[in-house]
Design a protein that fits this description.
Elements: H1 9-16, E1 23-27, H2 30-37, H3 58-75, H4 81-97, H5 104-110, H6 118-130, E2 135-138, H7 161-169, H8 172-180, E3 186-191, E4 200-206, E5 209-215, H9 228-245, E6 251-257, E7 263-270, H10 282-287, E8 299-301, H11 324-327, H12 334-348
Parallel strand pairs: 5-8
Antiparallel strand pairs: 1-3, 2-3, 4-5, 4-6, 6-7
Helix pairs in contact: 3-4, 3-5
The structure holds adenosine-5'-diphosphate (ADP) and magnesium ion.
């Protein structure tokens, strides 16, 4: 499809299976793409297999209304506080209204719903079972990292196909992927493992040479500095494996460092300003394009104690994430929430 095809998961994974977490790649039927792009969130139910396409069980309509109400409040982020209060009230009303299911909104909702394709659903459930019951989903390019809030534990750990649908359908990153990728969509399921953010690093390969390594998580971890040489060595070993087989010589790869100081490949990204350069700048990275020094040591950058202060100023995915408070609106005091948000904004400004 594009010049970036080498960076699609299903294209690089077969080359590096032996150094990457176990995964299954499922070629998605067109109906799955349509399902992901359709409005509302209709999950799979056993009964829905035998139903006509638009006959929606009550609980699903409730789920949809809750999501739609939440969405409409969130997209209105530039509105005044008064408007926000109104929106928040609407959410509450909308959710309460779901008890009387005959409202016209629900009828209207059912007309744009699509359900997940049944055969593909079965393949997903089988793959999850083969991967020991828990997976992290992604498409050709992206994981729905902005939608982890949809799932229990606020992580992308999916234990059934419905978890996967909830995450994918709530993610702006996934919509973006699907818009770029009109065909040959794949659903990647990677076996889940608990991965501490301090063990993740991003490695920059310029002209076939590993020149830079950045810590990925923006928190300070005091133990990382003393492990610098192990981190660099592990990244170098993995870099040489990748360079020997990967068709590009400029790329950025992400690793997880195991307790035994082995680097596992998590992802390969294009050498492109759209790829986050984290603790480096793209200007710095692009300058280092002379491969004169034979055994140059890559530069490792870690978040320092002094950097800590800027750590919390921008949370990842904060632009697309819905605050948990909105989802759990019934319990809270609405005015309180607005006040908290105002105070938070004032602090950030
Ligand atoms: N198998 C897995 N189990 C648990 N977490 C994972 C797994 N694979 C990836 N992750 C986490 O998800 C993040 C994003 O994964 P990645 O494949 O790079 O997606 P994206 O390209 O959208 O960032 C990784 O940095 C890692 O923290
Ligand atoms: Mg990635």
């Amino acid at each position: 499809m594009s010049q970036f095809a080498n960076f699609e998961f299903q294209n690089w994974y077969p080359l590096f299976k032996h150094v990457s977490p176990k995964a299954r790649v499922l070629v998605a039927p067109e109906q799955f793409r349509e399902y992901l792009l359709s409005d509302g969130l209709l999950l799979h139910t056993e009964e829905s297999d035998s139903e006509t396409e638009w006959n929606t069980p009550e609980t699903e309509i409730q789920h949809i209304n809750k999501k739609r109400a939440t969405d409409s409040a969130i997209t209105n982020s530039s509105a005044s506080d008064n408007d926000n209060i109104k929106n928040v009230k609407n959410i509450k009303n909308n959710i309460n209204d779901n008890d009387s299911e005959s409202d016209s909104d629900s009828v209207e909702a059912s007309s744009f719903l699509k359900k997940p394709p049944a055969e593909f659903h079965t393949l997903i459930e089988q793959a999850i079972a083969e991967l020991d019951g828990a997976v992290m989903p992604k498409l050709n390019w992206s994981a729905p990292r902005d939608a982890a809030w949809m799932l229990p534990g606020n992580s992308l750990k999916c234990i059934n196909a419905n978890d996967i649908y909830s995450a994918l359908k709530s993610s702006d990153y996934i919509v973006h992927d699907l818009q770029l990728q009109p065909e040959n969509v794949v659903l990647v399921l990677r076996q889940w493992f608990d991965l501490h953010p301090a063990t993740e690093f991003r490695c920059f390969v310029n002209n076939g040479e590993l020149i830079a390594i950045s810590q990925r998580d923006m928190n300070y971890y005091d133990f990382l500095e003393s492990r610098s040489s192990q981190i660099i060595d592990a990244c170098k070993v993995l870099a040489s494996t990748i360079v020997s087989k990967f068709p590009e010589n400029m790329f950025v790869f992400d690793i997880h460092l195991t307790k035994k100081d082995k680097a596992f490949l998590i992802d390969i990204n294009p050498w492109n300003e759209k790829t986050d350069s984290i603790l480096f700048t793209w200007d710095e990275l692009n300058l280092e394009n002379t491969s004169t020094t034979e055994s140059a040591v890559p530069e490792l950058r870690l978040v320092s104690k002094e950097d800590r202060t800027r750590t919390f100023s921008s949370k990842p995915h904060s632009t697309s994430q819905v605050p948990a408070d909105f989802v759990d609106m019934e319990k809270g005091d609405l005015q309180d929430l607005i006040e908290q948000m105002k105070a938070q904004r004032a602090k950030e400004a």
